[in-house]
Amino acid sequence: MAQNPQNPLIVQSNSSLLLEVGNPLFADARNAVGQFAHLDKSPEHIHTYSITPLSLWNAAALGLTAEDVEERLTTFSRYPLPRNVVDDIKELMGRFGKLLLESDDEGRLVLRALEPDMLRPLCRHPQVAPLVGQYIDDSRVSIPPQFRGLIKQALIGLGFPAHDLAGYVDGDPYEMSLRSVMLGGGELAIREYQRQAAESFIGNENSPGGSGVVVLPCGAGKTVVGLYAMSLLKRRTLILVTNVTAAHQWKREIMDKTGLRDDEIGEYSGEAKEIRPVTIATYQILTYRKSRNDVFLHFDIFNSQNWGLIIYDEVHLLPAPIFKFTANIQARRRLGLTATLIREDGLENDVFTLIGPKKFDVPWKDLERQGWIATAKCVEVRIDMPTAEKLQYLSLTPRQQIRLAYENPDKLRVAKEIINNHSNDNILIIGQYITQLEAFAKELDVPIITGTTANKKRDELYKKFRSGEIKVLILSKVGNFAIDLPDANVAIQISGSYGSRQEEAQRLGRILRPKKNGEQATFYSIVTRESKELEFAMNRQLFLTEQGYSYDIRYSEIQ
């Protein structure tokens, strides 16, 4: 018998949730389930969520219980809950907190088991045994402090995530506060969701903070969340970013929105090695080593100062070696900022254990409706391959086929048509293959930025684009990362990294900053029909359709 036929939620026995968008209770139900279920798809009418071990452990880390989850599902479910789903929720959430990482009265790091019988068998496991010290009693074993992160990785791998309550070192105090009026002019107003995000990370007595991830779309002001957290903690801060351009952007934002002076902000990159109270370091310099088997030369920066906060910008792009070192600094407060927790390498568990649980997120479409990010239209233009290339395509290896489809010469013609139709707009052309991009730059007579472009030249071109002196700019994969181009309102994607949903999100994000006149942003993808590129394009679309965007499919001609 139906529980309540008017309710918006259907809970299925495979732990998936179907949520009806048009139902009057949709918003309440979405807010209720979003804390313990992962949003898989969010197209127009039905949103799909999945309840996973990681989503449940994330909820448990935020203080939810299995009873809370069952109550929320019952409140909004159209039908009675499948018994196996309820049992699985209790089983999985019951595992979180059975193992606690704590600091004891003698200052030791201790792993404590609430069920003493499980401690010794777990500690004998080959992945755990090298990380434990001396047994204190039947329920406690000491853990060397440098293994705090590694033990959490090992235990979550065995299906028993440890609840880390060992606390954090305060780090050296350093006064920093936000300006009321920005250097660039205008009042600095922290948006409510930015305030909530930062305060969720900081935590309180009822919900301890200090480590975690804030998920907000590109253009929604993740940098401001970081700055607000810095102003609340008032500690020496290390900020890790994707590249030098992002480092310069962070420094501009810090100077514009806080009272910090230029000489209080250091850059640690291939261009400079400055250690200051607020230091911005690039992932590239931190992962640099002379050879594959050599040591990472710059990891000492993590311990060069008594940092009170480490901010990981674009945490979904965090290189694996940084995870390795992050495991060694679990006593530092850690804030991850990202537009998506999707990782193409499948290391979401490492983000959870080493950076922290997801503390805050807001659906992209919600911020679009509220006017905090630009409304966006996604258009996929499907074109045929010229006859000669089509005949050649059939005889190539899969990798060669992919490249030939991506570099379809007819894409240039379509790109020209799009540019002509957007003659008054600020246009980014983004792609994967340098030879293709250089050919576009030459034919269109527009500037190009690639990985080999000197940082000084990049900054100069970005500045000219922001000012409107340049209307069309071509970017290689460097365009995937944190660059602040607030006036870009058209993006043309001509090639990409196979089926990367993560990349699709980053590229759309380049044009989502709110426009002065509230105009719409348009994201074009030019795709070759009857090729593997089209298969990849369908996967790339997945993330954006999950966020509620729909694609307008067009063929050959731009209307």
Brief summary of the model shown:
By secondary structure, this protein is an alpha/beta fold. Helices cover 35% and strands 19% of the residues. It has four domains: 9-95, no CATH class; 99-164, Alpha-Beta Plaits; 192-362, Rossmann fold (3-Layer(aba) Sandwich); 369-555, 3-Layer(aba) Sandwich (Rossmann fold), CATH 3.40.50.
Architecture blueprint of SSEs:
Elements: E1 9-11, E2 16-20, H1 26-33, E3 38-41, E4 46-50, H2 53-61, H3 66-76, H4 83-95, E5 99-103, E6 109-113, H5 119-123, E7 135-137, E8 140-142, H6 148-157, E9 163-164, H7 192-202, E10 211-215, H8 222-233, E11 237-241, H9 244-257, E12 265-268, E13 278-282, H10 283-286, E14 309-313, H11 320-326, E15 333-338, H12 348-355, E16 358-361, H13 364-369, E17 376-383, H14 387-393, H15 398-406, H16 410-421, E18 427-430, H17 434-444, E19 448-449, H18 455-467, E20 472-475, E21 490-493, H19 501-509, E22 521-528, H20 532-546, E23 551-555
Parallel strand pairs: 5-9, 10-15, 10-16, 11-13, 11-14, 12-13, 14-15, 17-22, 17-23, 18-20, 18-21, 19-20, 21-22
Antiparallel strand pairs: 1-2, 2-4, 3-4, 5-6, 6-8, 7-8
Helix pairs in contact: 2-4, 3-4, 6-12, 7-8, 19-20
Ends distance: 51 Å
| Major β-sheet profile | 7 strands, parallel
Name the CATH superfamily assignment of the largest domain.
P-loop containing nucleotide triphosphate hydrolases
Query: Beta-strand percentage?
Result: 15-25%
Put simply, the count of helices is 20
Report the CATH architecture of the largest domain. Answer: 3-Layer(aba) Sandwich
Please name the CATH topology of the largest domain.
Rossmann fold
Radius of gyration (CA) equals: 25 Å
From the spread of the alpha carbons, the general shape counts as: globular
Helix content: 25-40%
Low-pLDDT segments? none
Main structural class: alpha/beta
Number of strands: 23
CATH class of the largest domain, named Alpha Beta
Average pLDDT score: 87
Number of domains: 4
Question: Which strand order do you get reading across the main beta sheet?
Answer: 12-13-11-14-15-10-16
